[in-house]
Design brief:
Length: 198
């Protein structure tokens, strides 16, 4: 038997996938990354100040005290051979210029929606549609409530039928994990469709 046959092989490194967690200001992106991450998440939060009162729309989220100014970062291991790196985007319009850089290398995205303030999510949906980055829409049930049927939400967001829409609670790890699994299923189906057409 050759020495190379008996050598202990190092375990293969898992595949890593970059996923964006995006959406408007105050929809729960930082909360989601923190809830599902298996590591202590990196956060770039700063306190809201009086200087931002004329810029930041706090209508409906008056209790918000901090905001992400660059990104949130977390990690979740899905299996022995798959790890997701999660990058939460800043939600305020003045930080949207960072989205292009954060999107580099991303295979997919979760767009979080607050149905109390749906208009803050239109820009995120448009961003991923224009760049043809697969995404799912996750409706964050603030206070654990989901007052509207999913079809009504889909109509209100003018969301295409092929885009998955799921209800979630950004505070709950299992709920966030389920959203990511829906996205992974979509990415796998999309890759299989591309292979069939290729």
């Amino acid at each position: 038997m050759a020495a190379s046959d008996t050598a202990v092989r190092a375990p293969a490194s898992p595949d890593t996938v970059k996923i964006l967690i995006a959406g408007g200001f105050g929809v729960g992106k930082t909360t989601m990354v923190g809830a599902v991450s298996e590591i202590v998440p990196l956060r770039t939060e700063e306190h809201l100040t009086a200087a931002g009162l004329d810029v930041d729309d706090l209508d409906g989220i008056e209790e918000k005290r901090t905001t992400t100014v660059a990104l949130d970062f977390g990690r979740i291991t899905i299996s022995d051979d798959l790890v997701l790196y999660l990058f939460g985007t800043p939600g305020q319009q003045r930080f949207w210029f960072m989205w292009n850089d954060l999107a580099l290398g991303a295979l997919g995205a979760v767009v979080l929606v607050d149905v109390r303030r749906p208009k803050v999510s239109f820009a995120a949906i448009d961003f991923f549609e224009r760049r043809r980055i697969p995404f799912v829409v996750a409706v964050n049930g603030f206070h654990g409530e989901h007052p509207y049927p999913t079809e009504d939400i889909r109509d209100a967001l003018a969301l295409a039928e092929h885009v998955p829409l799921v209800l979630c609670d950004a505070r709950e790890r299992e709920s966030c994990r389920d959203v990511l699994i829906v996205l992974l299923d979509q990415l796998i189906a999309s890759a299989a469709g591309s292979d069939a057409r290729g």
